[in-house]
Amino acid sequence: MKAWEKIEKLEMSVMQDSTDNAAALYDTLGEMPFTARALGLACRYRGLEMTRLLVERGAAFAFDMEKLKPVLIHARYFWLDLYGDENYSLGLLSTVARRETYELNNIGKMHCGVSLVSSSERLQTLDFFLKNAKKIGFKADEFLFYAYLANEREMIDFLKSKGVRASKRLLKIITEGANNDDWLNYCFLTGKLTDGEFLREMGAIAEECGGKKLHFTEKFWEYNSSRFEKPELFKFLLEHFNQTKMNKTKLMKNIIERDDVECLELCTENGWLKLPKKRDEMIAFAVDNEKAECSAYLLDFKNRTADLSAERAKAEKKLERELNADPNSVSELKKIWKYKKREDGSIIITGYKGNRTEITVPDKIGKSPVTAIGEYAFSPNAPRVTEEQALTRCRITKITLPETVVTIGEDAFGGSGACAVKGLFNAFSDLAEINLPKSLEFFASREAAEKAPKIFRNCKKLTVKIPRSPYARMYCKRLNVAFEFYGGNYDFK
User: Fold this and answer.
1) 467, β-bridge pairs
2) Which of 387, 492, 487 is nearest to 439 (CA)?
3) Which pLDDT score, from 0 to 100, does residue 70 have?
4) At CA 141, angle to CA 138 and CA 147, rounded to 5?
5) Are 44 and 100 in contact (CB under 8 A)?
6) 294-343 tens-digit pLDDT
7) Using CB atoms within 10 A as the burial measure, which of 124, 325, 382, 451 is most buried?
8) Which three-class secondary structure state does DSSP give residue 324?
């Protein structure tokens, strides 16, 4: 008999036969490659007696995933994407805690009249598992974690009385976050708890975490958003969860739309409105939406807490700094240019963030000379360019480069020839003028001009201004772009 046939026979026997017949079958099957699911079915649907006889014959929750993989493809009831950390002991929980429990439920539905055994018998089985934990691979710490989320209070109290603590691995996931099944199951199960259960069980989990804040993501919000609308629960969430990832603006606007002063007060107590700009934004939102209670509260909050003269003085200083800022300072240039410092200390411009259509590239940033223009530096087709930046680049009409520039990367000023933004196409052919310095490497010799990159691809309206150099002219003719000379009075043929 093949291995997968043995597995199916044992599982069907566990579900359908008497304990004596199941024991007899197990004895005839010989070595079993996988018994974890049969053991999960026994503890969920058949009780302690069936569970005990399986364990006495060698059944366990632990198994070698690598050895089992060749068997899985043949077994009808297996999930074929097993990760190797399955925990079929969760069959003891009444709530479906993970996909293993879904699997056990699906098999249970195939057998009419089969239902979950009583809570008292499941508690006895839990005691049996705890006493044989090492032999069968029972993970008591992970079981306790999911028992919290399943609101299995008797099992929780029993395990705690035996000194069991929740899994450090799982506690790390819910305090630091993870992109895996455990995190998704955690979010899903928290959403299934009633408000009272949520306060009790999540409070117990928070205590297990030793004061560390619980992680928060949009996925957690998806399953628990209604709890943010209830003052008692909102207070609990703010106290026990990391607020860094919370969309505070969105949450406060939802609160204001409900005209919920009690929840809004919790926001102010947690410092969500300590910035004058955010506070005034919420005041404007409340007034615009005619939310009388929240408007009155926010205006009173401002009157009670704001140092209006200090805020006004700060705003005036900021405005003054902006008006008097040196446009060539590093801080100001960082607002306009993306750049990198090379090993030799020079600067390569990698992107343009400004909003002007006529641009002069600086000859230095700080004390470092600008010697290169990177690939796609001005192109709307550059990777990781925002919609607004792409549109701005589409409108550029003139670029002047400094004499310090030696190299220019491929497609620095062009690209595919079109700027695609939400279905709106603007040809990047309005670039009308670019002044190239004589310092460019590809003006140095015939060979360099012949090998120079096609940096003006599809800029059809462009006129390139170049120094009076045969190689500069050769370069432009090779790229088939219009050009004009600047500087000097001599000519050549």
Assistant:
1) 486
2) 487
3) 62
4) 95
5) no
6) 999 999 999 988 787 777 787 677 666 666 667 788 888 998 999 999 99
7) 382
8) helix
Measured from the Cβ of residue 215, the count of other Cβ atoms closer than 10 Å reads 20
The single residue listed with the structure tokens 């300590």 is: 274
**Domain boundaries in the chain?**
3-166, 248-324, 330-486
More confident residue, 423 or 487: 487
Nearest CA among 375, 411, 380 for reference residue 395: 380
Tokens of 123: 């508690």
3-state helix, strand, coil in the chain (%, to 5): 50, 10, 40
Q: Count the Cβ atoms, other than its own, within 10 Å of residue 387.
A: 12
Considering only 5-9, 198-202, 238-242, which range has the smallest mean pLDDT?
5-9
With beta carbons less than 8 A apart as the criterion, state whether 233 and 203 touch.
Answer: no
Tokens of 190: 């928290």
pLDDT tens digits for range 155-167:
999 999 999 999 9
**354: CB partners within 8 A, 6+ apart:** 335, 336, 337, 392
- Write out the two tokens for 430: 């309005």
What's this model's pTM, rounded to 2 decimal places? 0.63
Say what the pLDDT of residue 297 is. Answer: 96
At 322 the pLDDT is 62
Nearest alpha-carbon partner for 177 in 267, 244, 226: 244
Residues 6+ apart with CB under 8 A from 82: 65, 68, 72
> Which residues partner with 347 through β-bridges?
341, 370
Q: Are 265 and 233 in contact (CB under 8 A)?
A: no
Question: Is 297 exposed, middle or buried, given 0-12, 13-18 or 19+ CB atoms closer than 10 A?
Answer: buried
- Residue 267 corresponds to which tokens in the numbers above? 């926001």
Residue 107's alpha-carbon distances to 69, 78, 295, in angstroms, are 20, 10, 57
**Helix axes of 168-176 and 195-208: crossing angle, nearest 10 degrees:** 110
Residue 125 above 80 pLDDT? yes
| 341 strand-pairing partners | 347
For the stretch 42-99, pLDDT in tens is 999 999 999 999 999 999 998 776 666 666 555 554 444 444 467 899 999 998 777 7
| Residue indicated by tokens 């699911």 | 37
Per-residue burial over 346-375, b if 16 or more Cβ lie within 10 Å, else e, is bbbbbbbeeeebebebbbebeebbbbbbbb
Distance, CA of 165 to CA of 455 (rounded, Å): 64
